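Re: your question from the hallway

Yes, I did run it. Sequences:
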Amino acid sequence: MSSVLLPGAQVLTDPMIGFDLGALARNFWALTIDGLTYGSIYALVAVGYTLVYGVLRLINFAHSEIFMLGMFGVYGTLLLLGFTPSGNAYNEGIPLTIMYLGIALIGGMIVAGTSAVGLERVAYRPLRKRGAPSLVFLITAIGASFVIQEFVHFVLPKLTNGKLGGVNAQQPIRLVEPVDVFSVFGATVTNIEIVIILSALVLAFATDRFINATKFGRGIRAVAQDPVTATLMGVSRERVIMLTFLIGGVLAGAAALLYTLRVPSGIIYSGGFILGIKAFSAAVLGGIGNLRGALLGGLLLGVMELYGQAVFGTEWRDVVAFVLLVLVLMFRPTGILGESLGRARV
Amino acid sequence: MRRSTPRLAGTALVLVVGLAVAGCSSKSSDDTGSSASSTGGTAALSIQPLVQIDNKGAEVKVDNSGTPANPAGDASAKCDPVTIAMAGALTGPNAALGINILNGATLAIDAHNAAAPDCQVAIKQFDTEGDPQKATQVAPTIVGDASIIGLLGPAFSGETKAVGPVFNQAGLLSLTASATNPDLTKNGWTNFFRGLANDAVQGPSVAAYMVNTLKYEKVCVVQDDSDYGVGLAEQITSGLGDAADSSCNAKVKTGDKQFDAAVQQVKDAEPDAVFYAGYYAEGAPFASQLKESGVTAAFVSADGTNDPQFVKQAGNAAKDAYLSCPCGPAPDQFATDYQAKFSTAPGVYSVEAYDLATIMLLGIDSGVKDRAGLIDWVKNYDGDGLARHYKWESTGELASALIWIYQVK
Amino acid sequence: MSTDIPTSTTAYDGLHLGLGDRLRLWWDALPRPMQWLVGSPIVIFIALLPVLQLPVITTVGTDFGGVLAQFGMYALLAIGLNVVVGQTGLLDLGYVGFYAIGAYTVGLLTSPDSPWNLTDDWLSRNWAWLFAVPVAIAVTALSGLLLGSPTLRLRGDYLAIVTLGFGEIVRLLADNLTGLTGGGRGLSQIAYPVAGVSEERPNGVFSAGNTLAPLNSGAFWFWLSMVLIIVTLVFVGNLERSRVGRSWVAIREDEDAAEIMGVPTFKFKLWAFVIGASIGGLSGALYAGQVQFVVPSTFNVINSMLFLCAVVLGGQGNKLGVIAGAFIIVYLPNFFLGRTQLFGIPINGDEIANYKYLFFGIALMVLMIFRPQGLFPARQKLLAYGRQVYVASRRAYLAAAALAAKTPVPAAVSSSSDDTEGGAR
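Structure:
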């Protein structure tokens, strides 16, 4: 990747872009672990994009805001559990922490899942009934993003007496402090990173099984492959679509919990946008519509981003991600593993 | 509606799981819940003034001999009704700063108007959103309003660059309580005065303090991409000289929350301290991610992070952080009055806004009626305020501007 | 004749046409010189807005001239984006990138902060802006070509995301290449056209320092942008009626069919992209001249969404509609800003203005469901021999209306037969 980027970039801006392969070599493993951590979060969000695209051929641009609502769901649940934001870790011990995390996870999943389904109901279904072209969907999604963001920005603090939402990031609730557990080639892995990577893998695996081995999953795949025939065969298209949005939302809620574990002060109304674009890029990278592609793309993007930062300088992170996206779309528009939920199954 | 679902489900889950863990959960959530009134574990942490320094980094004793000017000083003052304008971001993401300034000025004007019934001064607020183009739309309105004889603002350096010439040509006093870009006073504007030290003072002072007093030998300077962050980082880096380590001068973006690569760079360099040039929204998560990844270097930053939000967001990671500010600490009486009026604690630059508004009010009390007169008044002003002594050089910079070092304790 | 036709159209509603359609039919049937004649008073009235300072309409918290100047820039952007989105049907979410490139080109060439500043050696500051504008247009056109040639092979949604990425990359480059663009410090003291220097306006009418109401710099920038808008409209309108415009419509309606029918779709998509980009660059150059200061945060991706909002709101494909859309986007938040009462009802205008994105978001969603064609939708119309057909159809319409009322409408019929001659080109 760096070899692709370098010649053009250097001609353009010779002294202004740093280039330091040494930094990458020195911290290779630490960067890889951090990259995998974010990558697995991207992957979970990417699944939401990929499923909806697979079934509806629609980029659910507002999915990033579903993720953002998930973060607020997690945070709200923790507040309801009686945690006071204090900036310090609670460190309640492993069993209790796992329980709290579990409850927060469910809280985040419920909020994100219901809002994803709600979004589908309010914004997309009326358009589908009218047979609107895909641009109309995309513009609606942009409108919905505005509405959700501004809802959290202005309306939510009024509804919750200033406890949730508003212009500042939420004061963090830290359940656990990161503790080094073991090290790989000199790079330490913390408990939080283990939790994030493992849960993401488990969730991704579970989703894969759900899509590929259950009756519901078969319905989803059928609609993705051929909506008309699927409907004729007795699959309810509307139900499949709802289910798709629900799964995407639930996974975004889970990703929201994992993200807030890693970045507790990232809970802010505008916190979904960039992450959403990254996750979308991840989905495209792996092949949009392809479940396993989303996982691969997410991990790859997360790692690449950190390598890119080490080589070119920290300010180039987003550029690396966007350039990667543009390059993939130009040279392999179907992504690494190829498009389509229908074809990439089992 | 959306909220009620998770609340119900969450409560149900607490009940179910609570049974399984036999009351453990309810006990611990009681523990944490009871501290809801205070701010939890960081109740003890707040930003405390430490020392006032000059540009060599040496301590300057606070001179309490002078009496700060009082906006309610002259009860018998008579004047025609005039207006003072305030321009800054009052909405949008940067609104907090503008509101701090507006509130500080309002406090002074209300005190003045209550004391002097025959001299009522109004304050008009103009929202620029901190956006240069918006500022170019607001500026003509301010200039065109003949009742306005003085302006408190603009609040940010960027918008001041864009509209400074407008106020200069109109001969309208532009007294800023927060724009600290050093270049602003190099434009030859005769109407522009800065009520606090600029970044070219803050940078070297803090750098000298770090090297001479705190004895840091290796400092990583991390900057954000704002006008403020870039300018400050430049000043700090040159002030630090050899102590600044160029291998770890990471750059972050406004809105960023993940700083892994920057943290890694810092960790790699093993510095004595990290200087963060930017605002608290990024500074706080950066500080906590530094701490989490095991960096023990001291965290030093400036007025952009000198905000209660920094401590709230960073928690224990903020402990012992040094935060400089050209702004002085709010005196107790001021803080009480402010709290009573706006039901929030005074923020950064509230004191400066109060002082600068007071200076304009004193001018009006003394018989100044027009824009030229007010510029003249400020040019020749020499007196104490709550924060410091105010006397300007011909460029519009304060004759002696000192920096305060605060520490999170 | 412009007087008797409206009366006859309002009197008979035989064909059940909406007001907009009747207006449109009337307008389209007018001969071109007549259109100019009828159009000019309207244009002049709009141009006089900052001078007339009409009550209620004039903004309170911000300078009306300045607001209109911003509207002028947004209108140009909307026209440019409309070529891409409305006429060719390519969704471009990174249009702000071109706006930024236009503004930064002017900034880099004329700001003393920039290493490529030309104004301290051979270029006079008085003429620097005028010199930089064509350069800015050329550079943005080139960037449109560079972005377009690899990405325009992508379809719909993908293109939208790639352009979104492009918009962000432009902003990030402006932010990161500090040696060139000053990064977050921006480029200040950008040149502006120096014209109309007088005793009260020592730096000319376009200088930001010209605050003599009502003829302040905002008003002059507004007039300048109006001139450019009209020129652009004529240019885009002529393109629209040419082979290029017909190809765009064909591509928008069905790209595959167009390709099969022999339209070189890629070439014309690229054309649309380049023309749209250069109009965006022109608008950016105006911005740089007016504000005299550019900084990357002005060119956030959210602005792309706002531009798109203007186009969608106004009506994709309708040149005049998108201008109205731009007006709504710029004017509405400013209308409320600083207002404490409206028609005697106390309101908190600042707070309402603060909610603008919420309202725009809701507007987009509602519009897409109930009126996806926008407030002032584009109608399918004949592009080449349109006027003759409109005259004929108008005659038929009037005849039908007359028949419905069982009364003859002699004046209208005779006058519209005159039109045929005027309309033949």
